[in-house]
Amino acid sequence: MRKTNYNILKKKLLKMLRGSDYDFQELDLEMVDRFIEAKEIADMSMQDVRERGVVTPINTEQTVLQKNHSISAYFDAVKQIMELSKKLGLSARDRADLGLELKVGDGF
Predict the structure, then answer these.
(1) Is-above-0.85 flag for pTM?
(2) Domains of the chain by residue range
(3) Separation CA 51–CA 91 (nearest Å)
């Protein structure tokens, strides 16, 4: 995520939190930063999976394959986004308003 997108998302999130029933404290800025960083990691991980695939070679001859580690990073980041959302009092609607809908299908 470029710094401008980071700042835009941070401003939107802070405005949403300060205008809600959530009792926003300046100490919560750390959680906001972690939330946005988790979003950035999720985006970068999903982009890597799209570019390199679910399975990637681990040698130059491409004879040995392994699961792309970006998959684990993506799901860890999503888990962190969900945990921080709860701590910050964000609903699914709030996340959607911020453009944080998960773009993962159900696998079927």
Answers:
(1) no
(2) 3-97
(3) 31
